[in-house]
User: Fold these one by one.
Assistant:
Number 1:
Amino acid sequence: MPRQTTYSILLAGIIIVGGLLSLAVTPVGAVESYGIGAVPAHPSEDNPRTKSIFVYEAKTGSVTQDAVKLINNTAEEHIVKVYAVDSQHSSDGAFACAQAVDEKKDVGSWLVLEQNEVTLPPHGNQEVSFKVTVPPNAETGEHNGCIAIEDVRAPTQQVGNGIVLSFRSALRVAVTVPGKIQANLTFTNVLINDDSGKLVVSPVVKNTGNVSVDASVRSSLTTVFGNVVAESKGTFVVLNKDESRFNFNFERPFWGGWYSLQTEATYAILKEHPGASDMKQTARSETRSLFIAPNPTALFVYISSLVAIASVTIYLIWQRRRFKLMHQATVAYDIKPGDTLQALAEQAGINWRMLAKLNRLKPPYSLRSGQTLRIPKRRPKTADKSSKNQA
Amino acid sequence: MRKQIGYILLAVASLGVVTSLPQTVLATNNSTFSQTINAGVLSTDVLDATGATVASPSVAMSAKSLSFVCQSGGAASTGVFGANAQRITVLNPGGANNGWTLTLGATAGASATWVSGGNSFDYNDATASGCTDGGDVDLRPGQLTVDPSAGTLTADCDSCTTANVTKGSSTAYVQGTADSVTLLNASATSDDIWKGYLTGATLSQTIPAETPAGAYTMNMTLTATAL
């Protein structure tokens, strides 16, 4: 075989092996995901919300069947506990799930899972079926609970004093018992925390209805001229018969000053609730006026400007007063040939510009014979000095 | 010889070109590629600064001496929830698109207590700010306050921000009224794919007068809930 052919074959071989190797070591479309959790196994096409949580409309006495998909996005096998609990109002009115040991009175007691412990293989998943049975005496409106998923791992050993942490993720289960559905939001307060260099505005809103709403809450700071200088907003779940507080961090206006704070919440009953309408309602808080301290740099600019303005004002007043005094202490002098402004000013012991100003002379400050100027009287001391000099 | 070296260099260069090309799947018509990519799920954990899970996450509280007076306010036992090496992390790779909350509650519920051997004291007794025992079943008062607003929230992914994720207010546990403290509340308008962490939230526990010496612990559960 000719040597050149051998090299060509060798070349081709290396290219092919290299190409295959590169395919082998590079993951194809790898997606990095984390943790252990769950999603609804059979979300409804009509309601995108059901991709994340369970939403049911269920009459009293009815039984709804569904399933939760437990997912292990880690590289290790995990044994997980899965259980139902009631919902709980957390601080600031946020949604939380009660603990596994807490007594179940609401959706937590209505929901029964087929399994309570599942072994999930690495990057594996498993569906667990459950039934939701609404008791005959359930009140009209929304009831909430959770399906919680907790990794069963050896408890942490705390050395010394402190808190030992466990972790779980949970999915909200919202069950609405049909009937007269209503939601009504009102602002009960707008708290302003302007301490420690941060400006935190916390609107507090109450939902007196029997279903939760997604409220788009917006707080804005406006100047006295009505232009918005800072705004913060978000869409939050406001649970039924609950008060929610939202903490908005505001950019502190650089120049400080007086501002108006306006807050409003726009909401509608969620469309998954029976009898819901798309009509949005808006609740508004009372407009609050607040003074915001300026930024230290702005404060420096303010003080510097005030000092500068005060200095200029004092100088102008002083000048005006001096001019006035001078004007009062003047004598009329008729210009003779050969007189110059400079010479007359020197004789009077003042600057020639002052003399020109005193007589409202304009450039080029030429004097004509017969013209009358007001010339300050020489002070006695100066006059003495002058006569001494003459002597 | 030079020619041979030239060929070898050419081969190596070709190999380099092939490996640096954008990845394409070279498959014949009858090849089947199969893989399962799980849906992203909302979860929470404590991660260190490198992003690795902390094996034994815990929150140490400052040691106090036995006192004949209640140690509250500035004299209370304090701790930092979410040190830089123990970041309270939330991972939401698209599992909760309508918002989520991160809350902290005692694993044993409203009747939980700090325990050291046979001794215990309360974490949710509001009477006299935790200095006087209320009408609950435990015998020693005490109250734990969590202040997430003192902490720092950091987004930890390329395309997400902390916008529309708010920190909770400073809250003291009160039995039956405040059994859960909101650390973070993500609105529906927050980024659907989000990863971030909270550091520097503060804890303050009122220590009742004449609490026997010991290393007290309490189990708490951090819950990330899809809304």
Number 2:
Amino acid sequence: MSKHQNFEQWLQRTADELVNEPVPEWPRERTFRTTAANTLRWWQKPWLPMTSLAASAFAMVLVIGQVQVNSTSDGFSITFGGGVDEAKLTAMVEQRLNEYGAAQQLTLANYASNLREDFREDFRSELGAANQQLVNYVLATNRQERQDDMEDLIRYVNAQREDDQVFFANQLQQFSEDWLQQSSYPMSPMNSTQE
Amino acid sequence: MFAPSDQRLVKRALENNKQAWLELVKRYEGLVYNYALRMVSNRDDALDLMQEVFLSVFRNLAAWRGESSFKNWMMTIAHHRCIEHYRRRKSFEADYDFEQEASTADWDSPEAVYSGQQQGQRLVRAMQELPIEQRVVVELKFFQHFSLQEIAQQTETPLNTVKSRLYGAVSRLQELVEVV
């Protein structure tokens, strides 16, 4: 380590070890100066220049903005930027009213159209339901009637068959009786030949 | 209890709160007084210089925006006041051919600055022989523990100049301390 660096270390050590001297009593308060602007109370503040500045600014706004104050039987009206005369105002009001009327008509038309559409929709759906119900009813009834008809037919056919059976039974009975009668009496050869 | 920060004290001092300002002064008066003492090696001058520094700090308090720490900012002002003080004294001495108050003999008296601290007193006495620019660099580097970059900012001199001043100052001090 060089001599220079050694000395630098000694320097730092000595500086660190040096005990600071205590500060003697001194008038610290003298370094404090109250600023005049901040110490003024609100009633001491220069209101007049500020008020006049504000009034000037307000007047400039009135002039630049061409502000007009009109007094009518309906009350006061304040207009900016040169104002509007009566006819222009009426025209503007009419235009606005027309626009409003057109908008209202459009709204009403839309409303009516929507209403009609809704009604149609409802009607269509209800009619469809009624038709469906009717079809169901007709189908059900028709089926029942056909069943009844078929039953009647079968009953009729069965009755007819029974009648036929009775008829054929009678006929058989009759033929058998006839044959028995013929066999119980001897038949002439002629008769047998004839037969 | 937590001590209020420098920023808070400065804010309150700006709102004309005297107590806040006095608290700030008490916090840093030791630092500034001893800085001044090492710069001028005379208690009365150091006290005057400290007062000037705090007056100046109060006047410029609103200008502190918190970019650097309050201590750094205050030490920059202290540096400027110290240079002014030194120049005033130089011209005063030139005008009246006034012998420097802190003579060599004064350093051996019991009232001498840093009496009882042999090594420290040797160092501070040797520092008085340095030109003011070098003395400031030694003070800020070894006593205030600022980096060379910070010293360059505070003294508003280029970094290389600070380095060369420090080197020159250390070499000169080495000679002086060995002689002393």
Number 3:
Amino acid sequence: MAPPPNRRSGFSRRAQYTNFIGYIAGIAGGLLGAAFLMLAFANPSIFSSLRGVGSDIAEPAGKVAAEGRKAGHGLFDGLAAYFDAAQQNAYLKREVEAAKVKLVEFNARTEENRRLKALLQLRDGDSKPVAFAQLVASTAASTRRFATISVGADDGIKVGMPVSSAMGVVGRVLETASSTSRVLLITDAESVVPVRRASDSLPGFVEGRADGKVQIRLISLGINPLKPGDAFVTSGAGGLYPPGMPIAVAETITRDGAIAHVLADPAASDYVAVHEAWVPQIDAAQAANNARAARR
Amino acid sequence: MNPLGAMQRLLSPPRVGGINRAPSPLLARATPWLSIMLASLLANSLVIAAAPVMPPVGLMMLVAWVQIRPGLLPVWAGLPLGAFDDLFSGQPFGSAILLWSLTVIALDVIEMRIPWRNYLIEWATGAALVCGCLVAMLVFANATGGAAPLLVIAPQLVMVLLLYPVIGSLAGALDRFRLIRIMDLGR
């Protein structure tokens, strides 16, 4: 379309002023944005209540989208399964045979574990999850990795509670609103989770890389003993994440650790569980000791 | 009066088009705003992603609307629409307000400087503006935590480049939709 020859809004003073004020408001909007941004840099949680109201209002739409996603995966998985059904059948048969043997071993170990725990007079630390929730949204267009879950402060969710799916750790609660909460995923570049190697308790950290993978860093520097395929579980050090939750498997070995893929892919987890924040027992005992020492 | 005829008139869908019909002012004004807000929401709830895999659809929709109908959205549209996007995007609050306001002003300047544009120029300017915003978003996100490298947003940049015409034609379809002559002017 041919543009108008000049951009004057005619002889109407009112039209001219409206136009002019529009530009002023546009520039003012930009400046206001910059001011908000400075505030958010200084204190990232300053607008959390505003975000909470927004995500509470958008929750029904998110739930509808979640149902759509679930139906979507079912359809695609169903279609994909037809293509290599025979091969998959043979493979699964072999897998089941192997799993049966493993199951016997596992039952024996569980029994032994129970016996040893009774001997040490440890009680099972696993408590029931606080709530189960749907993942209703995630910040798919930003490099920060947050997700929104469909339970909030009304369901007893508190900041810091760990969130997991059936496959492993997903993240931890960062902000709560009344019926939704915002979760910091473990792939966010700001997330750090203390872990140990499942096979030999080699301690380390899992840090997010913002690209869907995580970086494993070992505490003891020197020769890197990691191999691709090493599985890592949370160590419970420092509290928050309970020990023994599966988290990642090493993929590419780097100089001081490994790049690992996350076990609980949030895209494939329709439901997640929110747990009570873990308080290490040993610390509680130490605190009691310290208190006793202080009294003396 | 024939009750059957009245019932039929009630049940039949409103006649669209014709000499005595006009577009609904509400639909004509609200469609751009609502479509941009919906796009902002969709970017976050279409997939639950472990990595940044969605282009900033809300911003692309805004740029497409401003390019199709210069002056339909006011210059200050970036403030309310950006604030809405900031609630859900995961960026520090204010990031979209600032970037979207600057984008609308930049598009206005481009429209003044290059009055005769073709499809390719619109594609290039639109995609370039959105890609610039993506890089700025990465800088702002890194300022609040973590140090994600530029490589993380490479898939998004490619997607913006390829998907921009699709969003543009979607906005074009919505533009035809908002001007459907649906209001009965009487006879």
Number 4:
Amino acid sequence: MNAPLPLSVTNNRRLDRWVRFDPDRRVHLAVGKVEIGQGVLTALSQIAAEELDVGLDRISILAGDTEAAPDEGSTSSSQSIEMSGASVRLIMAEVRARVLDRLARRLNCSPGDLRVEDGEFLRGDARTGFDYWNFANAEDLAHEAEGNATPKPYSAYRVVGQSVPRVDLPAKLSGAGFIHDIVRPDMLHARILRQPGRLARLTALDEAGLRRAAGGDYRIVRIGDFVAFAGADETAVQRAAAAAPSHAAWEHARGFTAAQGEAGWLVGRAGAIERIVGDPPTPPDAPVVVEATYSRPYVAHAAIAPSCALAEYRDGHLSVWSHTQGVYPLRAALAEVMGLDKANITVRHAHGAGCYGHNGADDAALDAALIAREIPGHCIRVQWMREEEFAYEPFSTAQSVRLRVAVDTAGRPADWMAEIWAGPHVGRTTFGGTMLAADALPGPKPQTRPFDPPETAGGGGTRNAVPLYDIPAKRVLHHLVTDCPVRTSSLRGLGALPNVFAMECMIDELAARAGQDPVAYRLSILSEPRARRVIERVARLSGWTALGPAGTGHGRGIAFSRYKNRAAYAAVVVELDVDQEVRLRHVWCVADAGLVINPDGARNQVEGGILHAASMTLKEQVVLGPDGIGTLGWDSYPILRFSEVPDVTVELIHAPELPSLGMGECSFGPTAAAIGNAVAHALGTRIRDMPLSRDRIMTALLRN
Amino acid sequence: MIAFEVNGQAVQVSAAADVPLLDVLRNELGLKGPRYGCGLEQCGTCMVLLDGEPAYACSREVGSVAGRRVSTVESLRDHVLVRAFLEEQAGQCGYCLSGILISAKALLDRNPTPSRADIVAALDKHLCRCGTHHRILRAVARAAEMLAGAAA
């Protein structure tokens, strides 16, 4: 019996949806997952080259196109290699088998007598004169995948498992390669006068005054409370947008209290939706209960490039270019908001800056589409401003995690309870969220539907909240807060970072109570062999020895998690110094992702996750205030700089015999927690609320 | 018309003197390497060389570069820096890289044998969000080694 087909294959059965042999001896591969800085296109090309037996340089890949590439939903949750990779492998194996079967019939031999060398078909060692390009035809590919071809065994791999250079990097090093760089005929630049909050109403726009203040040739597009400036001269359009707020009057503009920006504000909110995961509550008979509450504030994706999108409306057809994570979900959202038929919309992916989740990309696409419909026949290029991205991207929700652990007489956790308060971790339109400009359009406000990913998808607020440790009873009570003051959506790992931070800090607290070394304590309550292996390996890699006394200003910490409890394993050790602020010295990480397609690419992702998590843990917090979002620039929302990065050593477990596990997010949570533990060791007191900033350290030192 | 030199070529542009250099480079001259990131000299994605020194193109008016030499990342296509960045695979999304290459070029011109601390100091005005910092530091060091090897 066959294993169930990957979802991407089930949703895109036709082989020719995925692959085509082009006359120039190239293989055209089409996929639905997109490049967001993670190198996925290179890895998927490797898998295709491997199964077809063609050189990697023959693969040209098209990713994210509602006309010409399969629908694989969103590029998220570290699923691209697990899902798209498995699909490409299966499809290419089937294409190869199908073509070789037909050739074997033609040559009156067995398919087993044939082999493929860089796309050429050989019988034994003799050339047959046939290859993919002169033999495979449209008929071979005009079939639905049956999913019964056998992919190569890993022992036969020649391309997969090798470090190969990223296919997209050369262009990006020579001044091109991004959506921001696309130039189209009849292009008009556009900027938006943003509605200051979803309830805000524009009561007056002094267009004459604005034109006196910011001259130049531009059109003012107004649809309800949506106002945009469009013209051929980007500088003029930019000046109009910069001057516009002081010529506009709004009522019901948003404002916040500072307290609304803290994770603590979420705790106890009325109307929250409850979800219980894990074992039923049992009254623990353990004598000791340890309790602590940990938190992370709202944080921003803060992509280095503000969002950008292009749209054209010609002859009733809307074409959109976007750095969205999913062209098909974006097409559906545009169709719904704009009242268009999906068949009349094409969405194509173009590269943006690393997004790490759902940022302003899709919203910028709607902006461009709305303007394009008002100015048909032109290509509208919307470029968000830095402060616009910081103010209007969907943030990652704040999250409070209260842990209550009953401990047995040996000091081991006997009953584990996590109580989580968080807003939605996913706010895509396909999951009940809204698009920014939709709020400004005439008519009733779009309804939002509170949503958080189900456990079958790894959960959102509950992601990684259930410990992998051997604990007799463990459960999670999740409160999905439905009235967050700001729009929230997915950011790298969703709830995994706050949950792993809480859990792994608590494990250290329990180890300290038990008078045990953090590594030894973890291993004493963890039987899963792959989990143990990454912990043991990172301890060895980092030269872990018994922790010295706490409070010396020098600290070491360890943490572990398996992302989503089902993707890649990672264990992290951090060494740091603390005086008034944290100075990271060295981070070691060992990760087990099973079969790794492109080891250097994978290492790059693990390293990036470490530094991203370090930045978030030490520095990042979106601040709310009476005038809206208070963190509108890199000065008020600082991130880790070159002078602050530690040395990083990453080791990947070699396990090509095991299925690939998504690993783009695996180092994220453990890094945050290892920093938390190292800071506690350095200070001799624990800080449980992120970010572990200078202010928090000074407060902790005074408390000591 | 404002006359200056870009990547070794004399150019004349019709933009008003107060237009940001970044807009002129990207839109009038079609040089997309310098990138918009913040417009406030806070991130470094727009960095160009002005008479050999790194300068933010986002906030500089084009009138101020009249008669001067501007270089963008497009002028570095055959430079060892690009080769070193490819060899180290020093990039994830890559958006920050054109500005970083520019500052690295200025550093190597000034100091062909930089220490790690020198490289960090030269790049600290640049932000990288993907966490590719070490690879970038290694790539600049490797480029310096390549230059030293070529000179030896």
